[in-house]
Amino acid sequence: MGLHRRHVLKGLAAASALAAVPAISEDKWKTLAADVRAQMKWAWQGYGERCFGQDQIKPVSGGAQAFFFPKGPPMGLTIVEALDTLYVMGLDTEVAQGVRWVADNLRFDIDGEVQVFETGIRLVGGLLSAWCATREKKLLALAKDLADRLSPAFTKSPTGMPYRFVNLKTGAVRDSQSFPAEIGTYIAEWGTLGRAVGDKRYFDMAKRSVKALFDRRSRIDLVADTIDVETGAWVSRRASVGPPSDSYFEYLWDGWQLFGDPDFKRWYDVHAAAIAKYQAQMSDGNLWFPQVDFETGTVIDHHQSELAAFYAGLLGQGGDMARGKAYLASWAGVQARYGVLPEGYDTAKAAPDRITNELRPEFADSCLNLFLLDPDDRYRELARVHFEKMKETSRAAYGFTIIDDVTASPMKQGDLCPGYWWSEQMKYYWLLFSNTDRFDYKTNYLSTEGNILVGIK
Ligand code: DMJ
Question: Measuring from atom 11 of ligand 1, which residue has the nearest CA?
């Protein structure tokens, strides 16, 4: 065993100790859950009054911001993202209002191009989880129509790895330089859709893309973060567990968890071992994953994106609870220091290198995933702080907003509630605190966008 590896393992034992929390009664968690639900209901009212049907609300000014088409039409992104969260919270009037809007207004025969990855995880996934919750056939039909319109991105590519953009009406594609997350984050939605409509071609299309990427890994089993999907040639050397690679790793595990496909498990294990060997590093008692050269393992930089915090939960799911807990503890330390996590953190300097917070869910995501494996109140407590701090700093006139500077006192608010807020952290808090009977805590699956594709009751 090399010196570096010994050092990491020794450090792990110390770092994995998440701070113990005083016992909190189940009633107190339920009270907290009721608050989460009340905040969701209030934010939904704000969105309904100011810009129902628009993609995203600007909660400070009360305006709206498009996500897909700057000149319209709006796609009701917030509604699609929110539906299964509203459902598990028992906000049934709001669910009915949202489903009605979708059935009456959402159409995809639009002469405009969309980013395949974002459209897949947010809209196809959101429609599928809303269908799982309500069994409204129209939702499944819309998910299928949209996935079909995205499919030229895959079928026109010589390697099977999708182009980044596709025109929903014409099927024209563009942008051959893409990233692991945008190539490998389809199996959950495409596989679920294929199961629902009885057509395995969706699963096969998503799997082919992942295999094409995995097959191009380096001799030390890492992938770089940019590749040409036409030629299959790498155009970067930088390996990262953060964006733009992050959810590629997540969906390797998920392909196994959801569909029992052993190839996905093997692919996950190969990468997880290489990441543990070449990227895991202890610094001041904390576990971090610096970017490295994908062929040599040499460290390139010590930037840690907040989005990489999801990796704590994934490590746990993949069977490495020690590293999962240790990595969550590293981020918990940053949360304790700044209150709200900065978008980026330089682990060598132990200081933020990006001072915004785009109302991110990844830390709460890992709290939930680890809690589902090990129902310990420590994870709930970390998520409670995340929620309370969000309420304290992000609440605005018409909802919750991004922060422009988490190091300022008071923090400086921006003016946007991203679509994922409705699908992710509000759901994660609720599931963590409520013990709701609308969710199966034993058998479940949440996508990278927090869409519940298995386990809605
Ligand atoms: C979400 O859209 C998804 O979680 C995605 O995988 C990456 N990050 C954003 C939220 O930060």
Answer: 360
